[in-house]
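Just wondering, does anyone understand what follows?

——
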Amino acid sequence: MSYDNFEELTDDEAIGKAQVPYEITFSFVPLSHKDLTIAFAFSWHFYVVLYLIVGFFAIINMSIFLLYHRLVIRPKNGKPFTKFKFFSYLKLQIRPALYGMGLALIPLVIGNFFISWFISGHIF
């Protein structure tokens, strides 16, 4: 918030006998994700550490999940565990996931462009 164009009050304005003319103007400035989070509470160092901790716990959770299933699932007598074929799984799953994500993004992008145009008067 910034205040500017100050004028000294007359004696009548100071005691409330005369009205004080003024003009108030609001300016809204968009913030990025980083600026918005920093403006609310902490420095960017806190958020980097927070995201690293969340990622670490996600990896630990996935490792526990994998270990649990390795311990619980027993192959039949004499047969080895089946190998996890990550890249063939990824190749099978990535195309439908990207297609669905693209279909979901179409109305969101159109809505965001409309909101951006409505608020700022231009899209980019």
